Fold this protein.
Amino acid sequence: MVHLPEIVLPAFLRERLAQGHPWVYRDHVPPNVRLPSGAWVVIRCGAWRGYALWDAEGPIALRIFSTRRPPDTIWLRDQLMRAWELRAPLRAAGITAYRWVFGEGDGLPGITIDRYGDFAVMQTYSPGARTLVESLSPGELVQPDHDLPTARCSRTARGSARSTTTSGWQR
């Protein structure tokens, strides 16, 4: 296993983190932390432990993705499948445009995926989250036997002052 940098947070955050709060604001992180955006870190707060992506700029320094293990491609695919299965009633009702992944609500802070018919559009709202999704191809994120938007995919990306990246995949 790769050694991840560890960040120890102030004790007063433990209860909030244990309740599932998905972010840590920059002013709660020790000032000596210097990492590139998109670096995976272990965060500790008393006995609580989690795995987060670091963002070097902006008010949110850490976006927490897991308390069990460092996320990887399999973990990410599982999260996407949970979100996909949760929206099955929408597809069963014939709805073809909906939010497939709703960021923090689906355990993927800083990431949304909207489905428009045969297209899925992914947006990231932080450099760290962008690093996570750019390291994967759309084919790694989806499984054709689950009727996910896959097959021949195209990606486009654009950035803005808010570090938003949009990727589109087409069936």
Q: What stands out?
A: Residues 73-86 form the longest helix (14 residues). The chain has five helices and nine strands.
